[in-house]
Design goal:
It is found in: Membrane. The protein is mainly alpha-helical. It has two domains: about 150 residues, no CATH class; about 50 residues, no CATH class. It is about 60% helix and about 5% strand. The chain has six helices and two strands, in the order H-H-H-H-H-H-E-E. It starts with a helix and ends in an 8-residue tail after the last strand. About 15% of the residues are buried.
Length: about 220
């Protein structure tokens, strides 16, 4: 398991160093590492008590959901809720790891006060799992509100998340639904001056410019 997460980290560092790697490879290696983790934990429950099996299967379900979200994030890179969902699931995975250790081993004492063969214990563990979900969700909402208080007051924006229209336009631009023979691109400089010498209809792309305008019936700018 650790080896696959090491591979995922190495791929991330190689990509951030500027080396050309296949698009989406970092997401795929992370999804692979999580899938191997889930497989190992799913195989970790044979011959265990029902409570032991149940709390491990809850962890496996969280890992499986994380794999799905990571793969969706690889496809829809600009959707703001997918990174938040991944953060939520990874935090839930971490806190539930801690809860499993407490339930089974009671802070390293080697024994548990829980009745591992009791259906009532299974129900209580499920309730505790739902509490973990609720607390993490509230913490993330609090962090969002805290960041909004400091960020939005300075930027003048109305929300930390992009509007639905802007998100739709950015998604089309990312996945090639907009660029075709009918699409015209032109770069806007910081003072919004257009290049009057552009003769090819395709726009003057300058790496030093920060904004661009897409002309296909809908205009938007990307910082």
């Amino acid at each position: 398991m650790y080896a696959f997460f090491l591979i995922s980290g190495v791929v991330d560092m190689v990509g951030y160093s500027g080396t050309t790697i296949p698009d989406g490879l970092d997401y795929c290696t992370l999804a692979l590492a999580l899938a191997i983790e889930g497989l190992l934990f799913a195989s970790h429950v044979h011959g265990r008590e029902i409570l032991d099996i149940h709390i491990h299967l809850l962890l496996v379900k969280v890992i499986a959901a994380t794999v799905v979200v990571v793969l969706l994030e690889a496809r829809f890179r600009r959707h703001p809720l997918l990174p938040l969902g991944r953060a939520f699931l990874l935090m839930l995975q971490g806190t539930w790891f801690w809860a499993v250790a407490v339930i089974l081993y009671k802070h390293g004492q080697g024994h548990s006060d829980w009745d591992l063969s009791s259906p009532e214990s299974v129900m209580m563990a499920t309730i505790y799992f739902s509490w973990h979900c609720a607390v993490i969700f509230v913490v993330m909402i609090f962090m969002h509100l805290l960041m909004a208080r400091f960020y939005l007051g300075r930027s003048g924006e109305k929300s930390l998340l992009p509007s639905r229209e802007r998100l739709h336009n950015l998604s089309k631009a990312t996945w090639g639904e907009v660029p075709n023979s009918d699409t015209k691109y032109s770069i806007l400089s910081s003072d919004e001056d257009m290049d009057s010498n552009d003769n090819d209809g395709g726009g003057d792309f300058n790496a030093n410019n920060k904004n661009f305008k897409m002309e296909r019936g809908v205009d938007f700018e990307e910082a």
